[in-house]
From TrEMBL:
It comes from Rhodopirellula maiorica SM1. Keywords: Membrane, Transmembrane, Transmembrane helix. The chain crosses the membrane at residues 12-35, 112-130. Residues 465-524 are annotated as: Disordered. It comes from the Bacteria. This is Putative membrane protein. Coiled coil: none annotated. The lineage of its organism: Bacteria, Pseudomonadati, Planctomycetota, Planctomycetia, Pirellulales.
Amino acid sequence: MTLDWLFPFIDPLVRLLLTSGTLIATVITVIAIAIKPIRRSLGWHHAASAVDVGIPQLEERWSTVTSLSRRDQTGDSATAKAMAAQVTSEAIAMERIVRPHTIASPVPLRQTLVMAGVIGIILVGMIAISPRQMSILLHRFWVPTSNITATQLTSATGDLRVPRSETIQLVTKQNGLRRSTAILTLRDSEGHEQTHRLRPDQEMADQFSHPIRVDESLSYRIRSGDAQTDWHQVQAIDYPEISELLFTIEYPEYANRPSVHRDLIPRRIKVVQGSTLDLAIKPLEPLQRLSISLSAPKQSVRDADSQGQDVDESVQDLVADADGWYRFHMQLIDDVVLRPVLQSPGGLTNQRKTFCRIDVIADKAPVARVISPTDEMAVAVDETIEIEFEAHDDHGIATAELVVYDETQKDADGNPKVVAVKPIPLGEQKMQKHVMGKTQLNLKELNLLEGSEISYAVRVTDNRMVPSTDENTRDPIPPSPDLLASNRETEEPAEPTDPKPADAKASDGKNLAAQPQTTQASVA
C-alpha cells in the first residue's frame, strides 16, 4: 500500500504483481519462521536431544532411547535387546535429575510486542489522518485491478476543434477528496511534453483551469492526487481564406469603356447599368460551402453586423469546378451589396468579412437644345431657316433628326401633326458625348400655304441597346429614366417590361404659337 500511495499511477498489472508478491512472501515467512519450529518442537527426538544437551550426566541416554523406539527391533539379537533395555532403565532411573524449567527456558516477547505496537500505532494514525485514503488503498490492495481513486477528475473542456491562434481555457472538475495541486501535461504532435503546476480556482475550489494559446494541434492530461484524466485532443483548424480571386466588370458595348479587372474585391465601385459581373474565387483549402450573399444597400453590412440586425439578403451557393474555382456571374441592374461567404469543413466562416457595394448608374436619356433661332418670326413659304442646336448624352449621341410639326392640324389627342422628319448628319461628332450641329429647314419642300404655323424640334437618340437575358439579373431593365427614379424612391422592383428601346429621344422644340419664348415661324 505504501508503494501504491507513493506511486498512484502505476499500471494495474504492476499493482496485481505487488499484491500477489506481498501475499506469497507473507506465506513463506510464516512457514519459515513459525511452522518448522513448531513441528520440530512437537517431536520426541527434539525434546530428548534438548534434555541430553541440558543435562550432560545423562550421556545422551534419552536421545538413544528415542532413537531405539523409532526402530524395528524384531531382527535384533538378544544382546542388542538386552543393551537397549539396560539403557532404557538407566534413563528412567535418572529422570529425577531432569528439571523441565531448566531445559525449556521462556523466549522473551518484549521486542516483538514493541515492534507490533509501533506498526499498529502508525497504521491507526494513517487511518485517523486520512480514513478515505486508507480505505481506498486497502480496497486497491485487495482488488488491484479495479480503477478506484480517492479523487475523481473530469475534463469539462474535453476534445475541441479550435481556430488557430485563439486562446482557450482547459477546465477540469474534481470530486471526492479535493487536492490542492494538479499537474497539466501538454503533448505536441511530435511527442514533446510540457508540464504546468495548477492550483484550484479562487472562486471555484473544485476545479482547475489553465489558459493556452492554440497554435498547433496538441493533446493534454491532468493529474491530481491518485486520479488522472484521459488524454484529450485539441485540434487547431484554420479559417477559410481566398488563395486567388478574379473580379471582372464588363461594360455594355454602347458605354465604350474598357473592362475592369481586379485581383481583389473592391470595397465600392460604380458601374453602368447593364454591365455584367464575373467573380471567380479559388480558396486556399477545400471548402464545405461557398456562397454569394446579395443585399440591397439600404444599410451597410458592417453596420448591420455591429448592431446585431438581420440583413435582407439572398444567398446563392456556388459549386467548384474541376480546377477548384467557384464562379459567379450576374448582370447589374440595381445597386447591390455583394459578399462572399466561405465555410470550412470545420464549420468556420471567413474571418475577413469582405464585401463590395456596387452602385449602378442608370443611363439617362439624351438631351437636345435649339440654340438659334429662338425667337418667333415670320417667314416666306420658300425661305430656308438655318437651325443651330446642341445635344449631350452620358455615353454618346448616335443619331439626330429635325422634326417639323403643323400647328394648324391636330390629331385625335390634340397634338400637332408631324409633316416632316429630316435626318441630321453628325459626321465626326457621331458617338460623341457632346454634339454641336447645324441643319437647314427648306420651307419650299413642305408645300406650306400662306398663314400656316409650324414648329420644329431636334430629336436625338443614344446608342443604348441592353438585352436582359442573364438568369442572375435581379430585375429587367426599366423602360424609362422616370420609372428608374420611381423605383429608387419606392425601393420596389419594377414589373417585368420590355427593354428600353435604342431610340430613346429627347426634344427641345416648342409650340411656337402657344409659347412665344421659343422660335415661331408664320408663313406669309
